[in-house]
Amino acid sequence: MITLFRHWLKPPVFDGDPQKTFRASLLNIMLIAALSLTILVTVGNLFDKQTPIQNFFIDFLFLVTILFFRHTVFKGRIKLVSNGLLITTFILITISLANEGSISSPTASSFMFIMIASGILFDAKGVVLFTLGSSLAVGLVALAQNAGMLSPHKDAASLIQWFVLTVMFGVAGWMVLITQHAIQKALLQTAVENEERKRGEAALRAALSEKEIILNDLQTYQVELEWQNSELSRVQAELELSRDRYLDLYDLAPVGYCILGQNGLILDTNLTAATLLGNVRSNLLDKPFSLFCAEQYQDVFYLSHRKLIASRAQQTCELQMLKQDGTAFWVALEAIFIPGENNVSLTRVVMSDISDRKQAEADLKASEERFRLMFENHQAVMMLVEPITGQILDANVSAAEFYGYPRPTLLSKTIFEINTLPIDQIKFEMSRAEQGKTKFFVFPHRLASGDVRLVEVHSSPLNIREKRVLFSIVHDITERKRLEEQLQLKATTDELTGIYNRHHFMESATQELNRALRHNHPLTVAMIDLDHFKQINDRYGHVAGDQALIVFSQIIQKEIRNIDVFARYGGDEFVLLFPETNAEQARDVIERVRLALTAQPIELVGKMLSLTLSSGIASLTYENETLDALLSHADQVLYRAKEAGRNRVEIAS
Fold first, then answer.
1. Better pLDDT: 618 or 538
2. CA geometry: angle 592, 598, 600, nearest 5 deg
3. Which of 99, 195, 333, 629 is most buried (most C-beta within 10 Å)?
4. How far apart are CA 459 and CA 442, in angstroms?
5. Considering the chain, what is the average pLDDT of its residues?
6. What are phi and psi of 268, to 5 degrees?
7. Helix orientation angle between 159-206 and 105-146, rounded to the nearest 10 degrees
8. Contact 123, 165 (CB under 8 A)
9. Which of 529, 525, 495, 504 is nearest to 513 (CA)?
């Protein structure tokens, strides 16, 4: 806190302008004194209960004015603050003089203080102006008092006082000017003496003997020379280290390097090149590079070397070279022109062993050839399809024969023209095949004849010559599907009536029962029996009995919904499952069937017979939550209907 207060009290400093700094320091002292006085007056007024409220307002106005002047001083506006401060002080003293009605010692001292400050701040101009102003103020007060304009005072101002004070102000201002000029002269003399001292010191330094200067320069040169020798040694060591590293990198590089003369002789080689050729470096030097090329590839090297010399552009080629033991291996050569001295050009050859790559390419080519032979000669239908556009890129002979198109015509089509599914669905399935998510599909394909065949497609992604394709094998499963459907039909339907058999009913009824229990929905089962069916068989034969069962089944199918499950349970006994149906609703349906059967006599072996039925109905309850229990309950109700006289429908109570 004390440090901050001291920093706040410090006057501003203006570098290069000592006169301005001096005036700013004086103003800073005056403003701090005025601020302190104003704070003391304000504190005294606080303890005086009779102090009018306007006095506090005036004190606050003085504080703001003083702080504003001090802030302006630190901004460098010295002249503005000097004028403002002196004018404000002059006005305040003049007002005090007028109120008091006399010129007391404090008033005269105040005028003298401002006179001194004016002289310091504004030189002769300030002294003259303030002398005239002070004289005028005192004279006006004296005239006003003599004229009775001011209240009488025992020490009333007189013209003699005005004259004495005016002379005193002038003398004081003259003394301030003399003192200030003396100070400025002393400062100027001090500056001149400092300059003379500096020149003397410079002359003294220049007076050093030439021998001492030369000795000093020699010592400096010696130090620099020693430093240069040290740097030279360091650089030489780094160069040696760099050279050793380069040689290591050159020899141990993963590729072989050879430097050839203009005549193709090997001038230099690294260890890798000698290792590739199965030889030592000394046996390679001054030998023609072509000597180590396989005979059938020597012309390739000669042509590449001549192009390099003629065009000076980098040349690349691939050829076989021979090891010392005669083993051939593949290399990729990069030949680079190196300008030499005296118009002698050199060639740098970079050798990379590509035997593994060449072997892989040969294996791939053989594999592609085998695939091509298998693809074209296989009995299965095979195609290569572009996975995005669906374009048929290739197809074997079997594919052309199966679809009925000449092979060129088939290759001009897309898979969208053959597959009868919507294009969006085909694209979706092809994308799944390309991603390997699905490999097996069943599609309907249209042949050239217009027939649609159901085909089984095994499709897998392949990369052929850096191109992504789908390799598809197609099998015609139309006949197989037809046989499967026939078998499925036989497995689920009654051969005589064409309705569901008992096995399929049990599967479907179990699913419906579970759904009804899960959602708490109604479910009803009706057991139905043809009355006196055994007598029809005994009297008219089994053919008539079969005909009666067929007609009975047809009548019931006309009265039931698609969601109802109707099946032959065994012999002349049928079962009907009603989902989402209660017992009363089921009875209405069976009753309609009973009436329709009674009202529609059928012709059996040349005779018209009327058939009747008996039925027992049971609904799903908490007591029969299994299918067997539900069927057993309905069967019991059926026997009750028969005992009651047949040709009737009974509901479980």
1. 618
2. 100
3. 333
4. 11
5. 78
6. -155, 155
7. 140
8. no
9. 525
Please identify which residue in the block is written with the tokens 């006179």: 115
Condensed to tens digits (0 to 9), the pLDDT of residues 580-594 reads 999 999 999 999 999
How many angstroms separate the CA atoms of 327 and 292, rounded?
A: 11
Rounded to whole angstroms, the Cα distance separating 244 from 236 reads 12
The answer to whether 169 and 135 are in contact (CB under 8 A) is yes
Residue 242 — φ and ψ, nearest 5°? -65, -40
Nearest to 117 by CA among 84, 69, 140: 84
pLDDT of 518 above 80: yes
Could you give the CA distance from residue 384 to residue 373 in angstroms, rounded to a whole number? Answer: 14
614 closest CA partner among 580, 581, 650: 650
Average pLDDT over residues 159-175: 59
Q: State how beta strands 649-651 and 573-579 pair.
A: unpaired
CA distance 14 to 630: 114
The answer to whether the CB of 188 falls within 8 A of the CB of 195 is no
Cα 140 to Cα 122, 154, 167, 174, distances in angstroms: 25, 18, 16, 24
CB 530 within 8 A of CB 551: no
Helices (H), 435-571: 478-492, 502-519, 533-540, 542-559
Dihedral sign, Cα of residue 612, residue 618, residue 619, residue 625: negative
**In whole angstroms, what is the distance from residue 290 CA to residue 321 CA?**
9
Structural tokens at position 600:
């529609």
Closest CA to 618 of 576, 646, 648, 562: 576
C-alpha closest to that of 486 among 497, 474, 495: 495
Neighbours of 417 (CB within 10 A): 12
| Statement: residue 199 has pLDDT above 80 | no
Q: What is the Rg, in whole angstroms, of the alpha carbon atoms belonging to the chain? A: 63
Name the one residue in this structure whose structure tokens are 């380069």.
246
Percent of the chain past pLDDT 90, that is, above it, reads 20
Single out the residue of 421, 425, 430, 444 nearest to residue 390, CA to CA. Answer: 430
Report the candidate in 633, 628, 500 with the shortest Cα–Cα distance to residue 565: 500
- Report pLDDT for 484: 76
Region of residue 44 (left: phi > 0; alpha: psi -120 to 50; beta: else)? alpha
The position carrying tokens 């101002």 is 157
Band (632; pLDDT cuts 50, 70, 90): very high
Query: How many other C-beta atoms lie within 10 A of the C-beta of residue 136?
Result: 13
Per-residue pLDDT tens over the stretch 90-109: 666 666 555 555 555 455 55
Burial code (b: 16+ CB inside 10 Å, e: under 16) for 202-232 equals eeeeeeeeeeeeeeeeeeeeeeeeeeeeeee
Looking at residue 514, its pLDDT comes to 92
Q: Is 646 left (phi over 0), alpha (psi -120 to 50) or beta?
A: left
